[in-house]
Amino acid sequence: MDWDGAYKNRQTPWDKGAPSPGLVDLLEASPMRGRVFVPGCGLGHDVRAIARQPRVEVVGVDISPTALARARRFKRRGRETFLNGDIFNLPREFRGAFDWVWEHTCFCAIPVQRRKEYVAAVRSVLKRGGEIAAIFFLDPGLADPDAGPPFGVTKRQLNSLFLKSGAFEIVHEWDPERAYPGREGRELMRVMRAV
Fold first, then answer.
1. Which of 34, 38, 155, 184 supports an S-S bond with 99, CB 3.0-4.6 Å?
2. Among candidates 82, 14, 19, which has minimal Cα distance to 52?
3. pLDDT classification of 161: cutoffs 50, 70, 90
4. How many CB atoms are located within 10 Å of the residue 113 CB?
5. Strand partners for 194
6. pLDDT tens-digit profile of 39-96?
7. Cβ of 178: how many Cβ atoms within 10 Å?
8. Mean of the pLDDT values across residues 155-166?
9. What was the pLDDT predicted at 183?
10. How far apart are CA 33 and CA 1, in angstroms?
11. Among 104, 103, 67, 105, CA closest to 84
12. Cα angle value 55/60/63 (rounded, 5°)
């Protein structure tokens, strides 16, 4: 998919103009601290929501320079940084450098055959004992789920990728109380710890 072209042409139905309601609720209940990595951050709504918290530094990475240029136009909310990059080719200095990963719509956008690489990439940036908090899109509601992103996932597939790999253990799992309109009942939230 031509992600930068989509942002240039403003064909971004995944961008809702505000942080994920599930993230907002998570941060109210359990704030993040330390360094947070946000892969596939797009226009940075989630990055800015996280950056509002005290004692946090957030790095949003996206493959689209156009998305990041727009993200940087928003008013800063704290210690947030936006970097152009590919999650499958991250800088060496990112290894073991983060306390948290926030996942929202990056996992569901990558080709299904690259999911193991995704797990390895997010594990590589986390410190031992660091955590990934995520909203996984279980049912995108597409007529042809193989046609293109977003790609859905099942709990069984998540367990196979994240837990059976030995890279993570579940800390908490729940259905988000709030979601973007149209996504109600189609998402799963998880916090997993790097082991």
1. 34
2. 19
3. very high
4. 7
5. 168
6. 999 999 999 999 999 999 999 999 999 999 999 999 999 999 999 999 999 999 999 9
7. 12
8. 93
9. 86
10. 34
11. 67
12. 170
**pLDDT of residue 147 exceeding 80:** no
CB count in 10 Å sphere of residue 142: 13
pTM value surpassing 0.90:
yes
Domains along the sequence of the chain with CATH? 3-10+19-194 (3.40.50.150)
Give the type of residue at 102: W
Q: Is the dihedral of CA 34, 52, 169, 98 positive or negative?
A: negative
Q: 110 pLDDT exceeds 80? A: yes
182: CB partners within 8 A, 6+ apart: 141
The residues near 39 (Cβ < 8 Å, ≥ 6 apart) are: 61, 87, 101, 103, 106, 121, 122
Element (H, E) at 84: strand 79-84
**Percentage of residues of the chain with pLDDT beyond 70:** 96
**In whole angstroms, what is the distance from residue 122 CA to residue 26 CA?**
20
| Helix, strand, coil share of the chain (percent; to 5) | 30, 25, 45
**Residue linked to tokens 């509601």:** 141
